[in-house]
Design a protein that fits this description.
heterodimer; A: Pyruvate Kinase, Chain: A, domain 1; five-stranded mixed sheet; about 60% helix; B: alpha+beta; ATP Synthase, domain 1; 2 domains; five-stranded antiparallel sheet; 2 helices; 10 strands
């Protein structure tokens, strides 16, 4: 019977799509667990280093590092962390939208912005709109290492040191929970020292070895790196979570579509049979 | 009873050690430092080498760091390691291989090779092997 051949072909093709999305969902689920453990594993370091920075701002160093001094803002730098691959819902586009809104408001204030991008998606987007991209790193994989992003960060830090940048931000997706990821813009430099509580602000200082300048320089660079790295692993966890959710809804939609088409197909088939029977009956009656 | 001090060793990618110790010996840039409880606040850079944590008279834990920062507060010592490995996790074969590669690069100075990088790699590999040796002897 030639009835509904197109419909049958369509159902088969949707079933294939559904198989793929379901497989991707499963992969994303298992990767999400891994990336989440990684995200939690990096927390102790960033917590520790943030604590040291806080101690430092309570101490009275004889030397003030340029990273801690606020300057009038004329030029800003943003490190944008994106994913390498797509098919993860609105994850990257939400981040881009936030970034663009920010750029527009900077543009109104005559503030120039330059960008460093991590991740394939960000590279193609920002190069596409003709933004000023000065550094990029792609294909870091699912378990990025700190070494991979040091270069990108260094470009920005050097610019900051030379006075080509007055503020440095990092933009990434914050992992709220599996269902929710929020784009976030975090200020890296100058380091905002918390409001000093007077009783904590002692008159003590560290013993620095070899000297305050070198140690602080090292420490603050590490602090920035750890923040960006933390952002990167968090963004990774977001990517997998978003992909899992996106693929789940794609599989569900495919299922819905299949059952609708199946219904139409069955109706058409039934109608054809009924018509045939009535033709036969009609023919027999005429004889 | 000996006074103890809290020690945290963390690397950017994971937490390595957290607990109480009597003494911490770390490879500071200007020579090894030993830190006991109530040491004055200190901030120093570490070079590649071994951090030893003396938990009690019978037990000393070795950790390998390839560099980092050491912070001392009166009751807590924090080691921010660039790459910390528990001594028993160091892959000896990999360390020897890295050392060989670095030496090869050092001896082959005709080409445009990254001399400084090779030297750094060598220092790291040698420090790793030394940590491993000591760990073996203690056992």
């Amino acid at each position: 019977m030639a009835v509904g051949k197109e419909i049958r072909v369509k159902i088969a093709s949707i079933k294939n799509t559904q198989k793929i999305t379901r497989a991707m969902e499963k992969v994303a689920t298992s990767k999400m667990r891994k990336t989440q453990t990684r995200m939690l594993a990096t927390r102790p370091y960033s917590k520790k280093i943030a604590q040291i920075i806080r101690h430092l701002s309570h101490a009275k160093p004889e030397y003030t590092h340029p990273f801690m001094v606020e300057r009038p803002v004329k030029r800003v730098g943003v490190i944008v962390l994106t994913s390498d691959r797509g098919l993860c819902g609105g994850l990257n586009s939400n981040l881009f939208r936030m970034a663009l809104r920010q750029f527009r408001s900077w543009g109104k204030d005559q503030v120039e912005a330059q960008i460093a991008v991590i991740g394939q998606k960000g590279c193609s987007f920002f190069n596409g709109i003709g933004a000023k991209v000065i550094a990029q790193a792609t294909k870091l994989g699912d378990s990025p290492h700190l070494e991979d992003i040091i270069g990108v960060i260094k470009v920005m830090l050097d610019d900051y040191r030379d006075g080509n940048l007055d503020v440095l931000y990092v933009a990434y997706n914050e992992f709220v929970n599996t269902m929710t990821q929020k784009p976030k813009l975090l200020q890296l430099l100058p380091i905002k020292s918390d409001e000093l509580t007077p009783e904590l602000a002692g008159h003590w200082d560290y013993i620095y070895e070899p000297d305050a300048k070198e140690v602080l320089d090292d420490l603050l660079v590490r602090y920035v790196e750890s923040l960006v790295f933390q952002g990167l692993v968090e963004n990774n966890a977001c990517e997998q979570a978003a992909r899992m959710v996106a693929m789940k809804s794609a599989s569900d939609n495919a299922g819905k579509l299949i059952s609708e088409l199946q219904l139409i197909y069955n109706k058409a088939r039934q109608a054809a049979i009924t018509q045939e029977i009535s033709e036969i009956v009609g023919g027999a009656a005429a004889v | 009873m000996v006074m103890t001090i809290h020690v945290d060793i963390v690397s950017a990618e994971e937490k390595i050690f957290s607990g109480l110790a009597e003494l911490v010996i770390a490879p500071a840039e200007e020579g090894d430092v030993g830190i006991a409880a109530r040491h004055a606040p200190m901030l120093t850079r570490l070079k590649a080498g071994e951090v030893r944590v003396k938990v009690d008279d019978n037990e000393t834990l070795p950790f390998f760091v390839s560099g980092g920062v050491l912070e001392v507060q009166p009751h807590v010592v924090s080691v921010l390691a660039d790459r910390a490995v528990r001594a028993k996790d160091i892959d000896e074969a990999a360390a020897i291989e890295a050392k060989r590669r670095a030496e090869e690069t050092l001896s082959d100075r005709s080409g445009k090779l990254d001399y400084a990088k090779a030297q750094l790699e060598l220092i790291e590999a040698v420090a790793q092997l030394r940590t491993l040796d000591r760990y073996r002897n203690n056992r």
